[in-house]
Structures are given as C-alpha cells and as structure tokens.
Design brief:
Layout: E1 10-16, H1 20-34, E2 38-44, H2 50-60, E3 63-66, H3 78-95, E4 99-102, E5 116-119, H4 124-131, H5 138-153, E6 156-159, H6 162-172, E7 179-180, E8 201-204, H7 214-222, E9 228-231, E10 248-251, H8 255-262, E11 267-270, H9 279-286, E12 291-294, H10 297-303, E13 308-310, H11 315-327, H12 329-343, H13 348-364, H14 372-375
Parallel strand pairs: 1-2, 1-4, 2-3, 4-5, 5-6, 6-7, 8-9, 8-11, 9-10, 11-12, 12-13
Helix pairs in contact: 1-2, 1-13, 7-11, 9-12
Length: 376
C-alpha cells in the first residue's frame, strides 16, 4: 500500500443520517480533522435539512456530500448497492482520496485503488441470528451475501466490540475476526450533576426495529409508577409501525433533544435483543444515568460492573430492577456514577487513535493484527 504523500491525508468516509452511524461519523470525522486529516463524508440515503448539514459541517470540520446513492439496507436490489460502490470508487479517484472508510462492507468494490477500511456496525446476517429463526428470506439473503463479498474485498474490517466481532466472524465464516476499535461519543451538550436525578425512565433508538424490543418496553411501562419515555421512530422507512399503549412516545429527537432528556439523569433502559455497541447507552452513561440493560454479550462486555442486567424478554424482571433503583436513591446515584466513570473509557480520542493506527498500518504495510493493542 502506498503512503500518502501529503501532509494532510484525505479520507473519504461514508455515512447515513438515519441513526447512530451519523453520530459515529461526525465524531470520528471531527477527531480526524483535529489530527490533521482532510475528511469528506459521502452521505448515502435520505438527506437531512440544509441547516442540519451546515451545522454538522461546522461542528466536525468535515465536508459533507449528499450523494443520493442508495443505502445497502434500504436498496431494493443488489444492483443499487453495487452501483453505489462503483460511484464511491469514482468519487475516491476524483477526490484523490488516500483511504476509504466505509460504514458497511457491502459498499466495497474492487474498483477502489486505495486501502479500504470498513466498519461492521451491524448487518442483516447477525441481526437475523439474534432476533429471528429459520433461513433468511430472499430479500435479506442477498444483503447478507453482498456483505460477505465486501468482507472479502476490504483491507481491514473493524467492529465496535469483541462480542460483535465474534458474531461477524461466525456468520460470514471469516478466517479472522474483525479488529476491535470501540466507538466513542462526544456529548453535544455538557451535563450538570448539581440537580437530583428526575423521576422517570428513558429509552432511545429505532423503536420500529424488532431488535429494540418495543413490545417488552411497553410491558415494562405498564408495570411502573414512573413514566417510561421513549425517543425514536415507531415507524420503519418501509411504513411498518409498532403499536404501543403505555410508553410515553416522544418521537424522533435531535441531539439536543436527547441531551436535554439525559441531562435530567433518568434511569436509562435498553432491552435490545441485538446491539453491536449501543451509542445511546454510552450517551446515557456519560450523563450519569443509572443503566438497566438487557443481558446480551456486547452490553456485558462494555458495562459489566456499571449497570444492572436483565433478561430482555422479562418485563417484570426489568420493572423490578427499576423499582429497586427508585426505592434506593443512593444506589441509583452509585450506579449512575459507575456508569459515568466507565463511559470515560469509550471516548472519541480513543476511537480516533484506534482508527488512525489502522490507517497507518494500511499505508505502511504493517500487519494490522499487530496494532490490536493500540486500537482495541
């Protein structure tokens, strides 16, 4: 692999604006810009408002291009994803990019002429293994197959947790596990801890996704005296809607809206059946919220000793854990403090350092596995 000749190497990064990848990309892009890189973010899928894009550019220092290309998980046919990969390869040449950082291996193409680093944020193959049973339906099988193709093309695969790296290796039959570089998150608003935690429970995510387990969250809400506020869309891009009766649904909130909720330090609840990392949990922890989390391997890896764990299908068990924190304010404060302390391990600087180490390994030909200590 060639070394970049410029003092400020140019990174072409892909992203979408529909979930945690948007936050990840802006935080990583800002971290890279601070270290002297030039970063162009190629935005796939639906485009946010012009005001949101301009604010993101100003905050991150990145150039953001709305490409109009299809997202892999929203595309209607394999050809749309392949066309997106080919268009990104052409964009990399046009920009004279030194490396391409993909948010999905499915976008990889052999037409790229620079190193390709792809992040396994999530995928239909591992999602199906965790949430469903039986063979993948045809509309998901081709998406899994494109991801498998991409995994074989890219120079380096990254994953945000060891648990998800293992799942990715297992589902796609990889000879080696993806390299772990943990996600980081910079809160958009500083949190004050001078006021006492407020009497409600909070959750956030794409609630239409079966993995987020909205039905059980609704059952928990029915068992609590405190409100359980839920931020996130209840309707998928395809129009499928989850119906709930007891959740206090806030709709989709922007970063400031989420920060305002977390700034009151509610108890944070996630009953996800599948979660490769969980940026919403990290945001809640950094705000000092006590955490009640589903007992899945990724959450155990990240939050063991700094959260309460419950069976994601046990609504009464989750409600009992929450009631225990309600009845013992000191324990709630202790749990919130432990979560905040642990969150400091998953910062943007550490994430950026890990990714930069991977980039340098690609350029110098250093075996990437030897960088695991620096990147994990």
């Amino acid at each position: 692999m060639r070394m970049p000749l410029r003092d400020h190497p140019h990174i072409l990064m892909t992203a979408d604006a529909l979930g945690g990848i948007w936050q990840y990309s802006l935080d990583l892009g800002e971290g890279l810009v601070r270290r002297g890189f030039v970063v162009t973010i190629a935005l796939l899928g639906p485009v946010p408002s012009r005001e949101r894009l301009l604010a993101a550019e100003a905050a991150s220092g990145c150039r953001i291009l709305a490409t109009g290309l299809s997202l892999d998980w929203m595309a209607r046919a394999p050809a749309e994803v392949r066309e997106a990969g080919a268009a990104l390869a052409l964009l990399a040449v046009t920009l004279n990019a030194d490396i391409v950082h993909l948010h999905s291996p499915a976008l990889a193409s052999r037409d790229y002429h620079v190193p390709i680093v792809a992040v396994c944020h999530s995928c239909v193959g591992t999602w199906w293994e965790a949430v469903e049973t039986g063979p993948l339906p045809p509309d998901l099988a081709w998406r899994r197959d494109l991801t498998a193709e991409g995994c074989a093309i890219v120079d380096v695969l990254l994953a945000p947790t060891h648990a998800f790296a293992a799942a990715t290796q297992r589902v796609y039959g990889l000879a080696e596990r993806p390299l772990v570089v943990r996600n980081g998150r910079r809160s958009p608003i500083g949190h004050s801890h001078s006021l006492p935690p407020q009497p409600y429970v909070f959750t956030a995510g794409r609630l239409w996704d079966r993995a987020k387990n909205a039905e059980t969250l609704d059952e928990v809400a029915a068992r609590l005296d405190w409100p359980l506020r839920a931020a996130g869309s209840m309707e998928s891009p395809g129009g499928e809607r989850v119906e709930v009766m007891h959740l206090d649904c806030l709709g989709r909130l922007d970063d400031q809206g989420i920060a305002a909720q977390l700034g009151e330090r509610p108890i944070f609840l996630s009953l996800a059946r599948y979660e490769p990392f969980g940026l919403a949990v990290l945001e809640a922890a950094s705000a000092g919220c006590a955490l009640v989390l589903s007992d899945v391997t990724s959450f155990r890896e990240l939050w063991e000793g700094a959260a309460l764990f419950v069976d994601p299908e046990d609504a009464e068990g989750a409600a009992a854990a929450i009631r225990g924190l309600v009845e013992d304010p000191d324990e709630r404060l202790r749990q919130g403090s432990a979560a905040r302390t642990r969150s400091s391990c998953y910062g943007v600087d550490a994430m950026t350092s890990g990714v930069v180490a991977v980039f340098r390994g690609c350029w110098t030909g250093t075996p990437v596995r030897s960088l695991a200590g620096a990147a994990a």
